[in-house]
Amino acid sequence: MGRLRRQSEVLGTSVLSVCAMIPLKFFNKNEKEQFIKQLNEQFGIKDVPFSLAKLGRERIIVFSGDISEKEILGLDRFARIEGIGLYFAKIDEKTQDLRLSIEGVQLMKEQITKNIFELDEKQAEQWMMGQELLLEDIKKSREISRVQINSPLGGRVGSTSEIEIEKGFFIMKFKNDFLGTGKISAEKISNFIPKSRRLKYKEIKVEE
To answer: What's the whole-model pTM score?
Structure first.
């Protein structure tokens, strides 16, 4: 038992060390301005009233409240501090575009005006269950005659058989509900809802 306990303690220390090795860097004023500029270009967001930090190379965390950056960095030396902050966005490794997390979308929903992809009720249910949406199915849907996209790059809005949809990250929306971020490619909209947060069919209730 003593040996097993010691092995467990060593393993726990190793895991903790690996977590603590992931660098956490707070944005300076210029970095935050550049980040918000990119958010504005992609989604129309003009202000992020929180402290921002990059966790590793891709994840953006936001912090609010009375705890200082120095105190957060002090805590981060001993354990991963994601429980203190909120996962806000991720930087796409290939394109460097920003993908807002579900929490990020909810925090910024009052400011989001660009790159919004409107879903109908059936598509919203599929999305909340974690399914990818095929663009061909969207175009063929009898429930919609026009796909509404608010994009700075366009996407010509016309009949579903004629619509040209830009690729990239879009905020998925049904009526007044923002449902996270999807990535549009040539054939589908990729879904990033974690498995643990996907809804079963009987659990889905869409606000009327």
So the answer is: 0.74
